[in-house]
Amino acid sequence: xxxxSVLESGxxxxxxxxxxxxGTDINEIEEVAELLLGRVTATNVTDQQSSVMRLxxxxxxxLLKEKGLExxxxxxxxxxxxxxxxxxxxxxxxLGIENVLALTGDLPSLGDHPQAKPVYDLDSVQLLWxxxxxNEGYDVVGNELHGKTDFFPGAVVTPETDTEAKLxxxxxxxxxxxxxxxxxxxxxxxxxxxxxxxxxxxxEGFGVPILAGVIPLKSVGMARFMNKNVSGVFVPEExxxxxxxxxxxxxxxxxxxxxxxxxxxxxxxxxxxxxxxxEKRVPAILDAAGL
Amino acid sequence: xxxxxxxxxxxxLGYLDGEDRIFILGCNGCxxxxxxxxxxxxxxxxxxxxxxxKNVIGSMVIDFLCQKALVKSRLRxxxxxxxxxxxxxxxxxxxxVQAVAASVNKICHPACDTxxxxxxxxxxxxxxxxxxxxxxxxxxxxxxxxxxxxxxxxINGACGGASNGKCELDPERDCGWELIYERLKQKNQLDKLxxxxxxxxxxxxxPSPKMMSTSLWALEQIDQEEKIE
Lengths: 291, 229
Known about the structure:
heterodimer; A: alpha/beta; TIM Barrel; eight-stranded parallel β-barrel; 11 helices; globular; B: alpha/beta; Rossmann fold; four-stranded parallel β-sheet; two-stranded antiparallel ribbon; 30% helix
């Protein structure tokens, strides 16, 4: 069942993220694909995440599709101008890729090629608009296409924020994204279910399915690192304590993730697991969450 | 020298929609030299706005609008007039619009686009920045340029990267979009954030050959005159 039909029929969706490696070695991705097959609704492939040069999202989505998985093609505005974005979208369509997640993209200066020229010719709202144009059979300047696309476009939102301005800006941008065709949202990692429930209350009327982000904790250091360096991630002290006291850190981290999923299941339309190196443990986390 | 040209009248009238009392500001610096916002253009704009049913309650030409201290000191004697206005129409470059918007708690409309002349500079130094993009967006962003205030130059709102109001690129740098949010809130214009801004026409950001060889500045004509022997 496609991500579109799962979400449109109101079923709970499970997506997992995989990140291609730097280089041409695809063994890891293929192993992960086999483990995820039948366990997740769809698999996101990141687009050179953290601005670190890697194997591309489009080719990896194609590989996953061949393995029988439903890919979500993550596309950032960082590296391609409007010609390249549209052309890659047409390529994705002919390769049978249906889901596209439109993102702004991290700044190149934060990655491993800080000398690179940032593009941002379109922003994430305009990229969604462009996807919608291609779906209607036109490019962004209004030329007719020989054969249109049929994408199910998605977008991202950060539900937990540290300033009023940031929350309001996120919500207004979310509405803009919906207005230009976003059909689903995947969120930044959620650790505080009460705060997330408040966010869900705010967006109740928006009418789009929301997949809550889940990042399993691997260590106390990882939690503290994210709190300090990853915008929009707030791991509560209580969970950090739990990790600190745990004898088996991995088991505890997976347990925390499974419990989060169980609680999130009642308040949103899906979860989005970003395992960051723990992709092979995703089935076990889902088992523990009863999914 | 910064070269600016007036936006199409329809666009300017669109900005003023629903407003009655307008105060016009011109600049005796580059805008006068560009023929886009000197005394002559301010007078002309006043009569055009009046023909279109607006009440121009005052106007002033200052040198220079990019200097916030000058803007404040020159406008102070006119506080009552400015205070009574629904908005200020600013006929100058992107720096001037941003400097006025930062100095006066009034809705500030840009009347001009700033044209890229391929690298020439020479304005008063201030913290406002203008990329000379040729499609001024200050109408939508509270008079803070999103192309220069946001490190990604995003024009439809913030990315998710800010922490405590600071940019992820540099903890010392304010998130441009959070500044825009606070400014629009202060001016009761938060609705502007909901407007979808179409992709920019970046061809307007490339200097035309003509612009690269003249700055339209009156003194530049010296080039064509006889040289001093």
